[in-house]
């Protein structure tokens, strides 16, 4: 999968977030998008996902994109169980159990999401993205709300399960970006 982003421009109510933003991604690439709060990180991925329109520019995919996404907000079904949440994107019970065990949620299969801690919900969001057979991985602050041991574990999990698909990794944290080892970085500033 190749992604070509050309001359993107986006502003809201006269506030310019970015312009002339261009980059290309291919299989294996890890793109870090770094920027403080409000600089347009989520807007940029919404444009890539087709949820938001850019003012100018274009995004081209070499094949039909299928996104595995960890959204900034977990967007989990709080009243459904851990298992059911992953089942929405994956038919293989074996795969679901394997992924949940790997990330350390194996004991919570039948627990409602609403009883999980913030970090556990983050892990579940990551499992759901990994369980989906996509060809692009996008994560927005994937490893927030967890301690450093769990951060390392989640990064390892993410890197294993994205396979060779391009990964777009959004964060406001330089240290998190180092952990992920991005080979391309975009810094959104004023
Ligand atoms: N639909 C919208 N209408 C108007 N303004 C918007 C809209 N979406 C985002 N904005 C504004 O655009 C700016 C960038 O928002 P965005 O959510 O992309 O930032 P971010 O870098 O992801 O921030 P954070 O790290 O806090 O999530 C903010 O000032 C926000 O208020």
From TrEMBL:
InterPro entries xref list: AAA+_ATPase (IPR003593), ABC_SmlMolc_Importer (IPR050093), ABC_transporter-like_ATP-bd (IPR003439), ABC_transporter-like_CS (IPR017871), P-loop_NTPase (IPR027417)
- SMART domains linked: AAA
The record places domain ABC transporter at 3-189
**GO MF annotation terms:** ATP binding; ATP hydrolysis activity
Q: Give the domain of life.
A: Bacteria
One family name in Pfam for this protein: ABC_tran
Keywords from UniProt, A to Z, are: ATP-binding, Nucleotide-binding, Transport
Query: Which protein is depicted?
Result: ABC transporter ATP-binding protein
Species this chain originates from: Anaerosphaera multitolerans
């Amino acid at each position: 999968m190749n992604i070509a982003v050309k001359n993107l421009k986006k502003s809201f109510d006269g506030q310019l977030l970015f312009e002339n933003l261009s980059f290309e991604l291919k299989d294996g690439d890890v793109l870090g998008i770094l920027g403080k709060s409000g600089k347009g990180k989520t807007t940029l991925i919404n444009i890539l996902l087709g949820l938001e329109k850019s003012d100018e520019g274009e995004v081209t995919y070499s094949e039909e994109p299928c996104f595995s996404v960890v959204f900034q907000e977990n967007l989990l079904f709080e009243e459904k169980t851990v298992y059911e949440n992953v089942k929405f994107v994956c038919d293989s019970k074996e795969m679901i159990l394997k992924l949940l065990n790997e990330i350390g949620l194996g004991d919570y299969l039948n627990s409602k999401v609403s009883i999980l801690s913030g970090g556990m919900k983050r892990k579940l969001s990551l499992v759901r993205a990994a369980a989906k057979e996509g060809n692009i991985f996008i994560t927005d602050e994937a490893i927030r709300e967890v301690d450093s041991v769990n951060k390392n574990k989640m990064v390892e999990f993410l890197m294993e399960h994205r396979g060779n698909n391009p990964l777009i990794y959004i964060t406001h944290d330089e240290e998190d970006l180092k952990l992920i080892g991005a080979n391309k970085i975009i810094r959104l500033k004023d």
